[in-house]
Write a structure and sequence with these properties.
The protein is built from 20 helices and no strands. It has 495 residues and is mostly helical. It has one domain: Sodium/glucose cotransporter (Up-down Bundle). Helix 1 (3-26) runs antiparallel to helix 9 (175-203), helix 9 packs antiparallel against helix 15 (324-357) and helix 12 crosses helix 15. The chain is globular and about 70 Å long.
């Protein structure tokens, strides 16, 4: 059986299972189901689902390849993630639950005013759309190489089909569907990486102690980097960036918080956040262990390390000496990660645009809101597809770096807005807040460029912190003596 046919069968088998889970989860759904899951999700299920939500196709492909240039330094950042999740659990989760928010950016409307509220929503929209597109691009590229090119299918058609499949299973059930499909995704991801480790080790003739020793002694298995503060792998840079990256991209992200807010109450949501954060560390560690094994395998077989290390996993998975099961596991893990990540992005984008930008809950009755929400869902799908096609022809960075670069520039202002709102009581001139949020990424880029060219200092993920700090400083300069009179959202809390 040919490789393209194996992959197509695997995709349709997984998608059939996904569609079945989606159909069961979405029965009897309404707008409240789509936006909040009716706040009835068990925390343990949400916690396990969050593992899948935190891991995208980029993680599945890029993290194993990262060991070539960066070793296990990514774990330094993941340790920062865990600290960030504790902050989310005990600071942000109670805040959002007290306000019974459908969209978390409703907080900005209550705290600052209409302009700030819309600014937060738009920055989320831009960040999530670009980040999700980069993540899904990786999957489309792999499918193009393994399936579409052998069958002479254009890349554009590849994107249209995959986006259409994602739209199909998310259009009805929303966040409730996502929680259950993410649970399936988490199981498939974890089992895929564990079984791939087993098959690669078996191919190399390793027993468990021999595999452990080979990984431990390999040069790629270094975790901590304290020697060069200018390096992008320096411990404190990555750890602190991880703390703030977790807060920004999970705690202040409508996509991720939609799941947390689906729990029955804030205490269950806190349990979910802490447990899923700790579990993520071990799952990422599995990907890195697999990465070292893949490098050892390539050295053993005399296979050259490709210039784009994202390709390493796919090369080994489909190597002639590997059983077909490894290739199938690779595809299932990749598709599971990609479909769920893109699906959750579309759902959160639809929610934010409908609630925050269109003010749909206040403007429309429930029937009209349903029609508007479905139309917006189609629109989000089309926009994502167009961006993926654009990135395919112009992006040059490795995927995971591109994702975090986008996050650093776009989530920075969101982080700055929430930090100021929670720690400074003084109001600001609401109408000038959009200007501050636009200016912050520009100044961050100037600082990044200057540090690199004058001192050789390589700004990495800490760019997010710089961006947020500039936003806070700008808001301090805009502080007002009393609350400005402005038009604020009348109902950002939902029913």
């Amino acid at each position: 059986m040919s490789t393209p046919l194996i992959i197509i069968i695997s995709i349709f088998a997984y998608f059939g299972l996904l569609l079945g889970v989606s159909w069961i989860a979405s029965r009897g759904s309404d707008n409240a189901t789509f936006f909040t899951g009716n706040r009835r999700a068990p925390w343990a299920i949400v916690s396990f689902a969050m593992i899948g939500a935190m891991i995208s196709g980029v993680t599945f492909i890029s993290v194993p390849g990262m060991v070539v240039g960066s070793g296990y330094s990514y774990l330094q950042m993941v340790l920062g993630f865990i600290v960030g999740y504790f902050v989310i659990a005990f600071v942000l989760v109670p805040l959002f639950y007290r306000r019974n928010l459908v969209s978390i950016y409703g907080y900005l409307g209550e705290r600052f005013g209409q302009s700030t509220y819309r600014t937060g929503a738009w920055f989320f929209f831009i960040s999530k759309m670009l980040g999700a597109s980069v993540r899904f691009l990786v999957v489309c590229i792999v499918l193009q190489a393994l399936v579409c090119e052998p069958l002479h299918i254009p890349f554009v058609f590849n994107v249209i089909i995959t986006i259409a499949l994602i739209w199909l299973y998310t259009v009805q059930g929303g966040v409730k569907t996502l929680i259950w499909t993410d649970t399936l995704k988490s199981f498939c991801l974890i089992m895929s990486v564990i079984l791939c480790i087993y098959f690669v080790a078996q191919n190399l003739g390793f027993t468990l102690p021999e595999m452990t020793g080979a990984i431990r002694d390999h040069e790629s298995s270094r975790i901590f980097f304290f020697d060069d503060p200018k390096s992008g792998s320096y411990f404190w840079k990555q750890f602190l960036a991880g703390v703030f990256m977790a807060i920004a991209t999970n705690g202040l992200d409508q996509d991720m918080m939609q799941r947390n807010l689906a729990c029955r109450d804030h205490r269950q949501s806190q349990k979910n956040m802490i447990v899923s954060g700790i579990m993520q560390f071990f799952v990422i560690a599995l990907f890195l262990l697999l990465g070292t094994l893949l490098v050892i395998f390539m050295d053993h077989k005399g296979i050259a390390i490709p210039a784009k290390t994202d390709e390493i996993f796919g090369i080994v998975a489909w190597h002639e000496s590997m059983p077909a099961a490894v290739g199938i596991l690779f595809v299932i893990g990749l598709i599971a990660a990609a479909y769920s990540a893109a699906g959750s992005a579309l759902t959160s984008l639809t929610t934010s645009f409908t609630v925050d930008v269109l003010d749909g809950q206040n403007r429309y009755d429930d029937r009209k809101l349903t029609d508007v929400r479905k139309s917006v869902h189609v629109g989000m799908s089309v926009i994502m597809g167009l961006i993926i096609i654009g990135f395919y022809y112009f992006i040059e960075q490795d995927a995971i770096s591109a994702v975090y670069t986008v996050a650093a520039y776009t989530y920075g202002p969101i982080l700055g807005l929430f930090v100021y709102g929670m720690f400074w009581q003084k109001p600001v001139h609401d109408r000038w807040v959009p200007a501050v949020c636009v200016l912050s990424p520009v100044l961050s880029w100037i600082i990044q460029y200057t540090l690199d060219h004058l001192s050789g200092y390589k700004t990495s993920f800490e760019l997010l912190i710089i961006n947020a700090a500039i936003t806070v400083i700008g808001l301090r300069l805009l502080s007002a003596d009393k609350h400005p009179h402005n038009s604020r959202p009348q109902n950002t809390t939902g029913s």
